[in-house]
């Protein structure tokens, strides 16, 4: 087994080295440095990173933030990033993997102090924009990153219940267009300000031979904030976080597919909660397909079921009770990494397994269910991507001639091989499908 793994690894290293000149698809590997500080089996070390690198074309280190007073880029974990030299430890890997580009990401839902400062940055004018640009370029250069990723924390669409009664989806759309769901009345102004900032960043970074990428976070309305034709020439990549359309936190009373590839018809679902819709939105605005990467989550979202939720598990599941209990490794309510999900499947050591329901159409995704018991406890419903569905999405990216795929993130894949013995099964499945 070890020799097979080594052989596969060497082959992929050679393929990755070749892809710089052959134009092979991108494999964007997000790395949330929070994983380095987790404990036990969830702790992601430098050796794990090095094993993953044989599959990656880009690594995006998350996350930095901005100073709310000066609008300069700054570390939000100085102890790890600087005192423990984690920035430098990661970029030092470039010596052994020169074909990989390492970018530093700002935002990403990790910069939690005065979250409205990202909008305020846009409003603050040219002088503040210049401070942000210069500080970003300085930090990227100082720690030997190859560029900057903008994962800006912009206002999100308000969650809304769209299932159940007939016509409820139309009511939601009507509210949306009449203003009930407007989260930013100045979005058109902010779009123009963001366009100017991205253009200036692109010019400054290009002159310094640095990359600039954009990550569109889940439930950020692209049409409100991104003038796609205007900003695309300034960006090297656009990564669409096409998942978490529904989550237990945003939608505590009903569970549904969190990242379907195509629209799931019926039950008055909203038509834009799927990968294909989001991708087509950018393609229809003449953004080059080769600049677009679709995002796949290496984790699942888990709802707690009630006795009223029924026992079929078929989505849309009603009468859920918000996020399920935290997993032993990730310790986050409503979120389970791939290893945690896989270990909940039927196996000799699992007395209360979930029932796995596959998607033979490859359109919507897999889910797992365990109905609530007579005491209204132990019920759980999980929507997730597994290696098979991730492979299907990678195939979609190839068929659309997209830039590639972005995995969010390395630290939540089964990097220890706890489930089947295969380390990084999500990452490997995506990479294999991108190359064949």
UniProtKB/TrEMBL annotation:
GO terms for cellular component: extracellular region. PROSITE patterns: GH18_2. It comes from the Eukaryota. Its main location: secreted. One of its GO terms (biological process) is carbohydrate metabolic process. InterPro entries: Chitinase_II/V-like_cat (IPR011583), Chitinase_insertion_sf (IPR029070), GH (IPR017853), Glyco_hydro18_cat (IPR001223), Glycosyl_Hydrlase_18 (IPR050314), IDGF (IPR015520). One of its GO terms (molecular function) is chitinase activity. Pfam families: Glyco_hydro_18. Residues 25-436 form the GH18 domain. Keywords: Developmental protein, Disulfide bond, Glycoprotein, Glycosidase, Hydrolase, Secreted, Signal. PANTHER family: CHITINASE, CHITINASE-LIKE PROTEIN IDGF1-RELATED. Belongs to the glycosyl hydrolase 18 family. IDGF subfamily. This is GH18 domain-containing protein. The gene is Dwil\GK24711.
